[in-house]
Amino acid sequence: MTGEEFREHGHAMIEWIASYLETVRDRRVLPQVKPGDVLDALPAHGPALGETFGDILRDFESTILPGSTLWNHPRFFSYFSVSSSPESMLAEFLSAALNQNGILWKSGPALTELELAVLGWLREWLGLPERFFGVIYDTASISTMHALIAARQAVAPETREQGATANLTVYTSEQAHSSVEKGALALGFGAANVRKIASDSEFRMDVAALERAIEEDVRAGKRPCAIVPSIGATPTAALDPVSNILPIARACGAWLHVDAAYAGPAAMLEECRWMFDGWEQADSVVMNPQKWMLVNVDCSVLYLARREALSGAISLTPEYLRTQSDPRLVNYMDYSVALGRRFRALKLWFVMRSYGRDGIAKMLREHIGMAQWLAAQVQADSRFELVAPVHLSLICFRLRDSNEANQRLMDAINDSGFAFLSHTVQNGKFVLRFAIGNYMTTQEDVAQTWQRIQALAG
Ligand code: PLP
How confident is the model at residue 325 (pLDDT cuts 50, 70, 90)? Predict the structure, then answer.
């Protein structure tokens, strides 16, 4: 591609994205495709000769877009709703142009030091103490896996030499995201050593049950390695009582890792600080700017209070990566299983500077306000019930009817293409999840979706 062609296609693509964002509200959120449809529409073999950029873009519009679930849509209310803000998109473009790979300070001095700087800013915004050292990974699943690596090094440093031993245990809530167990499985803790602690009527980890499980395990010769509470657990955004769990972790010597992948940004809000009580004493914390903080996938931040536990477990320096040492030099490869790392701090920097702390807080408050409004509507309609407290931007509700009726209601709204909701099952009951979190979402989007849900409920 010549410079002239790059300008032409680049401008056309920006134009395409701008009009896409202006009209996305009119599109279906869920595509009308069956498994295999997109694959069948694609050639079975790659082209021997290069094709024109215009042809590829046309196929993107005719084949890829109609088969895409539109996450960056104001009525995407599924899973945890997320945003790819324009600022983040453009920064991603720049990052691809530089194509830096931040394995070492030397391979990306600005990449490394911008990551240090923005994670320092973010740490302050979240109210975490200075001892927390941040690392950006692709996802919360990988952040949590690294937290478990650090936990094992802190509790059983012999593992590095001898390999995984079978008597280390991990405790999390039955409401925790599956990434906690998956990380433990990948690291060889063994499924039998992952304890899923029961939750209470508000889906919070039952602290007495946690204590009992640890006592039993210690009596049986197990070694508690990590306790993983969530602030904003996936099914209902439940808030585990971190400050009550903290002394238990300290007493048994387990590492305390807090999963605040979704809720983390709310720590910036004075009125939400109570939810985060105790997380400042944790050994590690994960929060995802790619969820509720305007940064496009991927971007997850792990804060470690004892970073040497992670580097102690996995740092290795092959000869070709040896460089000078300097007290101010950080080589992020020492904190990551992956060697290569993208310049994710760039988009976080663009977002943090463009919106400022107050701009982000304003969006969070608007989303929480919409959630409160919707929770009140649900309560005002006797056909429905709220299933969990609404503290943040997730509303969990159901028809006072059979599971099948609730499933049909969710399928009907999703099949309509107007909005996309997901579900959970709690105490055997099918529950609809309405998650607000996209920067384009307005009160009207929420109200119109609620009206349609009411109409479909019959
Ligand atoms: N933790 C929580 C609380 C989540 O809700 C999720 C996903 O929604 C994850 C972890 C995993 O996130 P990721 O997709 O970044 O691995």
Answer: confident
Ligand 1: centre distance to CA 284 (Å): 16
Residue 173 near ligand 1, beta carbon < 6 Å: no
Cα–Cα separations (whole angstroms), residue 24 to 103, 373, 438: 37, 24, 12
pTM reported for the whole predicted model? 0.97
Mutate to test the pocket of ligand 1, among 71, 79, 230, 234 (most ligand atoms within 8 A of CB): 234
Contacts of 340 (CB under 8 A, 6+ apart): 101, 103
Q: How far away, in angstroms, is 389 Cα from ligand 1 center?
A: 20
Cβ of 236 below 6 Å from ligand 1: no
pLDDT band at 458, cuts 50/70/90?
confident
Report CA(41)–ligand 1 centroid distance (Å): 32
262 lines ligand 1 (CB under 6 A): yes
C-alpha to C-alpha distance for 110 and 427, rounded to whole angstroms: 50
Distance 141 CA to ligand 1 centre (A): 6
Answer yes or no: are the C-beta atoms of 155 and 229 closer than 8 Å. Answer: no
- Quick one: 79 exposed, middle or buried, by C-beta within 10 A (0-12, 13-18, 19+)? middle
Is the pLDDT at 227 greater than 90? The verdict is yes
Kind of pairing between the strands at 194-197 and 133-137: unpaired
Mind giving me the DSSP string for 175-202?
TS-HHHHHHHHHTT--GGGEEEE-B-TT
CA distance 213 to 217: 6
- Lowest model confidence (mean pLDDT) among 314-318, 363-367, 441-445: 314-318
